[in-house]
Amino acid sequence: MEEKTIAIVEDDTNQRQHYAEALRNCGYQVFEYSERATALEAFQQALPDLAILDIMLGEDVGGGFEICRYLKDKDSQFPIIFLTSRGDELDKIYGLQLGAWDYQTKPVSLEFLITRIKSLFQIKDNTSSKKHTANIKMIGDISIDEASMTIQWKNSPINLTPTEFDILHAILKTPEGVSIEDLINATRQGVVEDNTINTHILHIRKKFKKVDAEFKCIKTRYGFGYGWLC
Questions:
Q1: pLDDT value at position 205?
Q2: C-alpha closest to that of 101 among 208, 6, 170
Q3: Domain boundary among 72, 94, 128
Q4: Direct distance between the N- and C-terminal alpha carbons of the chain, in angstroms, rounded to an integer
């Protein structure tokens, strides 16, 4: 299998080298950047398979967010993990709204970080290997392609992250209602807070409303979870 490439953008030299060494020991090719400018210059030439971003890059307080925005503009499906000391709920919501696949607050164990990365690549590889055997299902006005992890609503594509796709797919499989616990399991992300699921649902709803302002199919089952009613 081709060696995966990972870019780490982190201004703390010791932390950056610590992560990079661990990932190289796992067989990944790692590129290190300490600031936004050098990272963007490299990304203009070629994109890695994954970017791990800190948010604060020295005096560049929101540098990681800007890098994320740039990468998503180049490739809407590009996978990004935020790894940062900024644990404020608003920062986390904003990072996910930008399209990050994951948002982890330091300190994070290397074992956990590596597991998250392996999970991401496994999902991407499984998607790529199945893309020629797509099985599109129609549920009312929504079409879902499990192989390519793509969604269309009334013939308009909905650009979901892999985690958002997994959550919506779980809801569509059990439209009468899926518990928060089952949605957490659907994300395949290990320890996930209830509020994180709620944040993902918020983003999914917003993405549908971008193409259909009247979209109201994802229903809240108070004290339980979410369902699909259209």
A1: 95
A2: 6
A3: 128
A4: 43
Place of tokens 């000391």: 85
Q: In a 10 Å sphere around its CB, with 0-12 CB exposed, 13-18 middle and 19+ buried, how is residue 158 labelled?
A: buried
What CATH number is given to the structural domain containing 213? 1.10.10.10
Residue matched to tokens 């320890």: 191
* Farthest-apart Cα atoms in the chain, separation: 53
pLDDT, mean of residues 73-78 = 87
Q: What is the DSSP string of 93-112?
A: HHHHHTT-SEEEESP--HHH
Domain boundary residue, one of 64, 99, 128:
128
- Our count of domains for the chain comes to 2
Quick count: other Cβ atoms within 10 Å of Cβ 20? 19
Q: Are residues 118 and 148 in the same domain?
A: no
> From CA 180, how far away is CA 160, in angstroms rounded?
19
| Count of CB atoms situated within 10 Å of the CB of 18 | 14
Beta carbons within 8 Å of 51's beta carbon, 6+ residues apart: 6, 7, 8, 9, 67, 68, 71, 78, 79, 80, 81
Quote the pLDDT of residue 172: 92
Q: Does the pTM exceed 0.85?
A: no
Residue range(s) defining the domain that contains residue 172: 134-228
Cβ(36)–Cβ(67) under 8 Å? Answer: yes
